[in-house]
Amino acid sequence: MEDSKEPTFRSYNQKQGAIYSQNRPTYHPNLYKTIIDYHVSTGGKLNTILDVGCGPGNAVRDLSSHFTQAIGLDPSEGMIKAARSLGGTSSDGSHIQFETSTAEELGAGTSLNLADSSVDLIVAATAAHWFDMSLFWPRAAKLLNPGGSVALWAARGGYIHPSTPNHAAIQDYITQIQDKFLRAHAKQGTGIVFDLYTDLVLPWSLEESQDEFDKGAFFHKVWNKETVCSNGDEFFASQQEPQFMSFDLDKLEKMLGTKGTVTRWREANACKTGTEEDIVKVMRGHIEGLLYEVGVPKGQEELNMGVEGVLMIVKKHS
């Protein structure tokens, strides 16, 4: 999922990659439809898709039915092993190809032997904030067919939606935990996601501007910024409502375990990991208490968590 600036997921083994795949929210078909519709309507073809920072392959697996060839790249050997074990096929029934490679190399030096102007759509699902964009954009410009697209999206989430009982107290507690225990384990790219890719470097912002890309065709959409609902669209597949996802506390605990800051906290506090002093266990116990104090019955503990997302699509000139 991330390059050398974010070593956590790069060091994942196959088992960790499979757990990650199972417990991360998947993206909604509406998000994929937005990408495909814009790509095709602006001259993009549906032959080859390349997912960069693919992790265990969730996004490329969802999109592969639109393309005759699908490829996933990730710098983590463990993630790629997990992706291969989970498999997937493209529209003509051929297997998705998964290879170990960074976003800056985009398959160079692998068995893929990707030729210039051979890829129609490059995607990165909550991963581009770890890329060295000064290297990524020139390589992407070479690989893309004329009229091809680069779709980059990310999710910022975790705020407690007001529909959750005692939501203000729960949000205050989570903020305290983040500030006191988890912020120290954040990496630079986390801030780029927090700002919904406002500071993500685009090809025309480079010192050597990549003129192959069409600034005038730039597509930008934000979902539910600052909790304001965006036209009823969903960003994640598990959303029951446009503005939030619902989690029981078992599911929340598993999802939090896939977060980079939690993983790094556990690495730094190995003696507490998996015990009652584990940061996620502590959070769960306190959240349960905050729900019970306002009358939520045992067995019905559930959080509605707000969803904010961003999508950017960059076009190569036809």
Automatic annotation (TrEMBL):
InterPro entries: Diverse_substrate_MTase, Methyltransf_11, SAM-dependent_MTases_sf
Any Pfam family matching the protein: Methyltransf_11
Superkingdom of the source species: Eukaryota
SUPFAM superfamilies hit by this protein: S-adenosyl-L-methionine-dependent methyltransferases
One GO molecular-function entry: S-adenosylmethionine-dependent methyltransferase activity
CDD domains xref list: AdoMet_MTases
Methyltransferase type domain mapped to chain residues: 50-151
Official protein name in the record: Methyltransferase type 11 domain-containing protein
